[in-house]
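Reminder to self: tokens first, then the designed residues, so the page reads top to bottom the way the pipeline ran.
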């Protein structure tokens, strides 16, 4: 016999999504190399900021294909998913994230697992992909693939709290951006590129 009392006391995945992912963020912060966090721009977005940013979207109905560059532990995508599922009528959600740090990728996988659970509970299809590569280099590759006629992923929502780092003129990232006409660093041009 199932104990319904225990089931009533446990929040569903959607109710606990943002708080649980914020705990992942807190835990991950303790595991990161403190001496290189600043260099790498690893300042994870707290739940309150993630909710403010996801609150800026005016329409999360239908097919939602999210781009999250420098995703960290997934706070931004999780907040967007929670908002979409509670305030809108998405038919499907696809979370696409870029993150290099192994510790954060592990948390991101857990976060996306919770996003999947919340989506399924809400009757919404969930799909995700974690790219453990540099976002700028991958974005340039996508742009080049599009210009050569290759099929590439598309996104209709982008959510990010970019690292506040200067991309120096002699850096590899700047050279990559320059190769596709991105001499001035304006992230939105890459994020919303549609060929």
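Designed residues (195 positions):
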């Amino acid at each position: 016999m199932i104990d319904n009392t225990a089931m009533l006391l446990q929040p569903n995945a959607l109710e606990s999504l943002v708080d649980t992912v914020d705990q992942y963020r807190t835990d991950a912060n303790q595991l990161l190399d403190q001496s290189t966090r600043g260099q790498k721009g690893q300042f994870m977005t707290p739940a309150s900021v993630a909710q403010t940013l996801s609150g800026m979207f005016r329409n999360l109905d239908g097919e939602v294909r999210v781009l999250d560059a420098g995703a960290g532990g997934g706070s931004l995508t999780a907040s967007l998913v929670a908002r979409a599922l509670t305030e809108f009528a998405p038919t499907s959600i696809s979370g696409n994230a870029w993150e290099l740090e192994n510790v954060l990728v592990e948390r991101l996988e857990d976060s996306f697992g919770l996003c999947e659970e919340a989506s399924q509970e809400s009757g919404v299809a969930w799909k995700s992909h974690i790219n453990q590569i540099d976002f700028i280099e991958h974005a340039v590759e996508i742009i080049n693939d599009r210009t050569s006629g290759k099929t590439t992923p598309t996104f209709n929502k982008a959510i990010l709290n970019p690292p506040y780092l200067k991309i120096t003129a002699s850096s590899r990232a700047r050279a990559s951006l320059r190769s596709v006409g991105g001499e001035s660093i304006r992230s939105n041009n890459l994020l919303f590129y549609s060929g």
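The longest strand covers residues 90-98.
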